[in-house]
């Protein structure tokens, strides 16, 4: 009997072992391989830049700012990461931050900055840099810290943490419309979109562009449908996308046509129209051009994106006066700022 009981025990034990679920292999941990700080002058501002290098490329991270006990603390928590052979504490330029300290928390790493002033959104900027193999630099999380009291240029409140896809219209083999002096729509939309990206990122938003240079998104041999679907796919495949914004210039056979207008697709949700209204209002406040209104249209990228989407027509590139505006760097910057403000207003009133 005793032998039989032992056999049954061994059988149950072996059965349990073989029936245990196979665990999913844990993702390899990142490792901090470099930390460097320097004073940087850029776009008329001077700030302290700290670059945190990671061994395995991009990693998820969160940003936390001051508490009651530590109002000057800025915390960057990097998930699934360990500290490598780097200094665990660094003394920094006291005009910006007193120190940076690295500490472990479960399977994460926290990089704690003790700022010279309160840890407020306008006092810092977080971004990333891809690995630079030529110069032997890893993927980096970049922390820019400004002097206490500095008001950062190109900052819009209410955008922090939001995920936005910006689509610069046309590009590559598709030049879009052209103006009387030869200005191309694809160049204007890219210039404005790049400036908009900088403002959004400077304001704490997560931004993805469908294109960052003069190219076709799908490829030079694409049909119109393939190219437009490739743009919509960027919105669909970018995790967390809340808004899809397509940037264009208007055109017409008559050079007398002028003004600004914004489109949405009526068949999706009330948020689409609300987004278009807020973008239109913000653009008009900045450019003072003729209000051509907010309109519904069946444009491909508006119909084939699941998130709220809008298409803006900044001005008429076929109008002599408005072509001159569209080619002006200051006007492009102003329109980028207006779109950022329109997005912030949308998020505020939509409760998103």
UniProtKB/TrEMBL annotation:
Annotated keywords: Hydrolase
One Gene Ontology cellular component annotation held by this UniProt entry: outer membrane-bounded periplasmic space
Record Gene3D superfamilies: 2.60.40.3500, Zn-dependent exopeptidases
Protein name: N-acetylmuramoyl-L-alanine amidase
Gene Ontology BP, a term: peptidoglycan catabolic process
InterPro entries the UniProt entry points to: MurNAc-LAA_cat, N-acetylmuramoyl_amidase_3
GO-annotated molecular function: N-acetylmuramoyl-L-alanine amidase activity
Coiled-coil residues: none
């Amino acid at each position: 009997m005793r032998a039989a009981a032992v056999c049954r025990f061994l059988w149950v034990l072996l059965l349990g072992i073989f029936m245990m679920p196979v665990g999913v292999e844990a993702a390899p941990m990142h490792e901090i391989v470099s930390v460097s700080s320097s004073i940087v002058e850029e776009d008329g501002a001077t700030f302290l830049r700290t670059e945190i290098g990671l061994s395995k490329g991009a990693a998820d991270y969160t940003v936390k700012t001051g508490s009651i006990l530590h109002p000057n603390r800025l915390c960057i928590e990097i998930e699934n990461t360990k500290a490598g052979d780097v200094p665990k504490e660094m003394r920094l330029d006291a005009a910006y931050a007193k120190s940076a300290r690295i500490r472990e928390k479960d399977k994460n790493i926290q990089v704690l900055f003790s700022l010279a002033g309160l840890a407020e959104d306008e006092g810092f900027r977080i971004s990333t840099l891809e690995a630079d193999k030529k110069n032997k630099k890893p993927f980096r999380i970049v922390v820019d810290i400004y002097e206490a009291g500095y008001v950062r240029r190109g900052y819009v409140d209410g955008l922090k943490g939001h995920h936005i896809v910006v689509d610069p219209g046309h590009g590559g083999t598709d030049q879009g419309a052209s103006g009387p002096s030869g200005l191309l729509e694809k160049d204007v939309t890219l210039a404005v979109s790049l400036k908009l990206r900088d403002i959004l990122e400077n304001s704490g938003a997560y931004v993805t562009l469908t294109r960052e240079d003069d190219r076709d998104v799908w490829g030079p041999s694409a049909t119109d449908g393939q190219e437009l679907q490739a743009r919509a796919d960027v919105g669909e495949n970018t995790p967390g996308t809340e808004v899809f914004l397509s940037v264009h210039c208007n055109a017409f056979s008559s050079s007398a046509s002028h003004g600004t207008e914004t489109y949405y697709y009526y068949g999706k949700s009330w948020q689409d129209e609300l987004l278009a209204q807020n973008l239109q209002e913000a653009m008009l406040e900045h450019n003072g051009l003729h209000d051509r209104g907010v309109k519904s249209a069946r444009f491909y990228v508006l119909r084939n994106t699941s998130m709220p989407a809008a298409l803006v027509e900044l001005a008429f590139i076929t109008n002599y006066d408005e072509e001159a505006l569209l080619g002006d760097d200051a006007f492009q910057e102003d329109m980028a700022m207006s779109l950022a403000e329109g997005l912030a207003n949308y998020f505020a009133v939509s409760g998103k």
